[in-house]
């Protein structure tokens, strides 16, 4: 309230005096230990008379007078008596009536508390010529229109909360740093210094700066990373292995922070559109790239677009890029006709915000139902291919005809009481779980450091990703039990 709105005779009476704890015609607020430390906007509220005496509902059948529970106020909101019918007398009468009434109330945390006591007083006096005040209105009134009693009040409210937040962040950072420091660090088979962070359930890339740019290879296989971002400048890093994650976005300046990146393995991730690989244009030294198992590999002209967009790539999906493919890609995507074709074919995935990621996570309930409905090993293989492609199986995914192979396996399963013996007949129609639906490169497609007939200037890309057999084992056991 502005004191110039009050008559001169009342000016002295309306002065707030934090030293003497006098808050005339004020709604006051003080923090509650432990509770306010965790939730800084949750505290204890009271209301003062025109003489500054505080009344607060401090417990069941108890209204404190000039002895506020949990300490003296740190926040206050002074009101204008001119907005009350009857002035200060009406204010005092409403405060006393509400206090007398609440001496017969049982204190509850949510339904009948100190906020309700103050709201009743404001409703009785018709503050602002209206009624209907509630806990939320009082909280917003203090939050947006309140004032601190001084520096001490500000510190009393925010210092414990700040300490808890800083301590929590420090624990998180130390934990992540220890994870990196305690991970395997070794020289791999191609004499590169490698850091292994496999299967650590890492959801977000962060704190890679603690590696101090001392590694040529970082292995982040089998984690839960959704975005390839938050990477510091690592000028030495030449190989990044990201198999079996959920990567769906790549940071636009990845080439600037990883200028020496030569091998990038993104097998079995969730890159959906051709435009999602456009940020890799900044990686001028990128030679080996694998995108097998991503939905974008099923897009038309996928391979030619990647070859056109990333001219430095020599081996794509474990197959050498031929000169004929480069010419075909240039003829398809260059020029005005190529620009028009790119506009029709190339799209980018919608940017997913952090708060949308949980809502768009995979529906495990549908997957569990699909696993339970698999009745043959052929259906198991088909379900595994659907899940690895990043899709959710439909309800009738196993109602389609899957050929004579399914009938044969069902017949064998019935004859052997649900168990099917392994057959070593070299039949490629039924893939082994170890294959993981990832085609192995032919000898003439990918150079290998263990062959003598390749040039020394062509090095091998990253090794094949580790085989993801947990899902296959679970499904196979389920089918065997049935």
UniProtKB/TrEMBL annotation:
Residue ranges annotated for the U2A'/phosphoprotein 32 family A C-terminal domain, each copy included: 299-317
UniProt KW Transmembrane helix keyword: yes
GO MF entries: U2 snRNA binding
Residues of the signal peptide: none
The UniProt record lists the keyword Transmembrane helix: yes
Segments of this protein annotated with the region Disordered: 422-466
Keywords: Leucine-rich repeat, Membrane, mRNA processing, mRNA splicing, Nucleus, Repeat, Spliceosome, Transmembrane, Transmembrane helix
Entry's localization field: Nucleus
A GO BP entry: mRNA splicing, via spliceosome
Residues that span the membrane, as ranges: 157-175
Gene3D superfamilies: Ribonuclease Inhibitor
Gene Ontology cellular-component annotations: spliceosomal complex; U2 snRNP
Family: Belongs to the U2 small nuclear ribonucleoprotein A family.
Protein name: Probable U2 small nuclear ribonucleoprotein A'
